[in-house]
User: Which sequence fits this backbone?
């Protein structure tokens, strides 16, 4: 039964008094000490939680449309702000210089999903920090670009809808001498030393398009499934698209994540949630390569 509006109001009142700032309740009072095992009180329980283990062998190989990136190649309107929110390094995505919003469609998605923000999950000098695993392997960093279904007015409304949110996941891996440096990623990671403290903010210098965050990623090869946000309240609103190509990044960039601090001044490391049960959910895999490993130019 739906609680009446009046009962909802009564439930919300104590929260309103506790949080005089405009903090969302999910932004407080949780941490990564047990990688999510103690989130029982703040996380919605359910059968479609994320992250999960992704395996080509256990996936349904289907001819899905490729992911289409709209306005990803257009420069974003500045200033672009990087924030240490105590849980991650977070960037709200502004509109593009010509007043549009970057968006994605394709894959399992119906309609357009507007880019809202991106952030990262990382490990420590002795552990890897990706949330999803691919063929039993975890990676040093996982970047998430969060999109909201254009038919909902904002991210808070979208979080409560089954088709509300689309997140793309991109794996980053430390490589000794990467033969390519991706300008977007290196600009953002280069700004990390200015946000080591909780709530510290800095501006990303120079122009940035969202596409620059993806380097030379092959958008045709990915896993996709229905799951949840990986931070409280873990709403089951997310269509995940996790690309199988891993982007190489230098150690000196990744090590900057490990210097961030959380709201209590502790090192903000290992900010990933543990793998969740798949519970029989279908995971789809779109093959973007032919057997020789060359990309199909479709
Ligand atoms: Zn995330």
Assistant:
């Amino acid at each position: 039964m739906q609680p009446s509006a009046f009962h909802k109001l009564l439930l919300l009142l104590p929260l309103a008094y506790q949080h005089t700032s405009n903090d969302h309740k999910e932004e407080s009072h949780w941490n990564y000490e047990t990688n999510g095992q103690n989130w029982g009180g703040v996380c919605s329980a359910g059968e479609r939680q994320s992250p999960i283990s992704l395996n080509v062998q256990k996936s349904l190989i289907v001819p899905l449309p490729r992911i289409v990136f709209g306005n990803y190649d257009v420069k974003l309107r500045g200033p672009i702000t990087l924030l240490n929110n105590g849980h991650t390094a977070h960037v709200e995505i502004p509109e593009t210089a010509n007043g549009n919003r970057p968006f994605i469609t394709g894959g399992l998605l119906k309609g357009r999903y507007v880019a809202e923000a991106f952030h990262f999950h990382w490990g420590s000098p002795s552990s890897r920090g990706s949330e999803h695993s691919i063929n039993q392997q975890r990676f040093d960093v996982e970047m998430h670009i969060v999109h909201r279904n254009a038919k909902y007015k904002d991210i808070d409304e979208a979080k409560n809808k089954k088709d509300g949110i689309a997140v793309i996941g991109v794996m980053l891996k430390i490589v000794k001498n990467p033969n390519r440096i991706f300008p977007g990623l290196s600009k953002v990671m280069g700004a990390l030393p200015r946000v080591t403290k909780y709530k510290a903010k800095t501006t990303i210098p120079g122009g940035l398009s969202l596409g620059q965050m993806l380097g030379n990623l092959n958008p045709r090869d990915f896993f996709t499934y229905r799951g949840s946000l990986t931070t409280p309240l873990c709403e089951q609103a997310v269509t995940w698209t996790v690309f199988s190509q891993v982007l190489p990044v230098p150690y000196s960039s990744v090590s900057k994540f490990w210097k961030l601090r959380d709201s209590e001044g502790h090192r903000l490391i290992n900010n990933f949630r543990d793998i969740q049960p798949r519970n029989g959910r279908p995971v789809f895999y779109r093959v973007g390569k032919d057997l020789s490993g060359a990309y199909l130019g479709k």
In short: The chain has one domain: 50-286.
